[in-house]
Amino acid sequence: MGRGIQWKEVFIVCAFTFLFVFILENRSVQVTISPQAESISVHRHMLLSGFESILLPTARDMPTPSSINSSVTVFASTVTDNATVRNASLLINGEIGHKQTVRPSRLHIDSFGFPGPVPWDWIRPSVRDMYTMNGQIAVQPFFFNSDAPDSGAVAPIWTDEQIDGMLEVARSRNLSSGQLSGYDDSSSLFFFEAFDRYPIRGKSILVIGSQTPWVEAICIAAEAGSITTVDFNPPVVSHPRIKSISIDQLDATDDVYDVIVSFSSIEHDGLGRYGDPMNPTGDLQRMKKLQGLVKPEGLFYLGVPVGNDTLAFNGHRVYGPLRMPKLIEGWKHLDTVGGKLEDLFAQYQNGGFIQPILILHYVP
């Protein structure tokens, strides 16, 4: 004789089905705050897709825990197809009822797209492969955790006296009378020669990435027209020849320039050192964006580390025969001040680097 309907079993099956659906629709994420409360690692609970790691860059969006290494649970009402957790809230153990909404942009399954700095060990292997071009580029530890504005870095202040002092040295080209750059003298000499070969007199200039106004001083000495400086942490400046803007302002502008100048800046894009979004191809994307900011037939004077392909994370990149062609793709390489690229690749293949000035030409 067959069994009748067992309502107890039906109830159990329904209960488990409801619980399973509830878990899928309300995935929780466990968060651990470091003792310094400057970085947060997050692990999503094991579900059908397996164990995945997600990261948060700093504790600035989190409520202060009642004790060091407190446990925090993030409850997400939905997990979208692109793995971005939305409508998230926090509940800190020991602080019953304490909840705080987290901006969705701060919480990602993928370990890039949010502001750095983030340690290399926290980045998912698949994303590390993107940074290293599938393991072709060697990685060296060179981590900075204090250069981002949110980490306490203060915007540099450029005084008129400082700029005029550098301008005097740049005009005389007597580097023994005073220091221009924070690098060796070759960087200044390379720019002198670059502007002699390809003059910038009367041209509008966009300077990418400056901590001190030495490049700007050389541009003024070369009789440039207007000068706009952009940086992740833009300097405070009141000099009549220099305007300062942020990267966000640059990305939002429709302005175009006759000339772009950059020294020791592009190689940092996407590494998060200066609070910029983590992005394995941030440098390549920045170079593409700059094509829309230079006038047709405009020039780009680019100084980046050149040697053997290396990722000194999160300090900088060194460009060799693998990544350099990708970096300058879409630009016509006219000249290099400081040596031929092929010779420099060979000269520094066993370590070290040089920062020559590449003269690039943009033809739409």
Written account of the structure:
The chain is α/β, with parallel strands linked by helices and 364 residues long. Helices cover 24% and strands 27% of the residues. It is built from nine helices and 20 strands. The strands form five sheets. A seven-stranded mixed beta sheet has the order 12-10-9-13-14-20-18. A six-stranded antiparallel beta sheet has the order 3-2-1-4-5-6, with no helix packed on it.
Low-confidence stretches: 18-111
Instruction: State the order of secondary-structure elements, H for helix, E for strand.
Output: HEEEEEEHEEHHEHEEEHEHEEEEHEHEE
* Biggest sheet statistics: 7 strands, mixed
Total helices: the number is 9
Q: Structural class given helices, strands, pairing?
A: alpha/beta
How big a fraction of the residues is strand? Answer: 25-35%
Strand order of the largest sheet: 12-10-9-13-14-20-18
- Strands, total number: 20
How big is the Rg? Answer: 26 Å
Average residue pLDDT: 75
Distance between the termini: 83 Å
What is the global morphology? globular
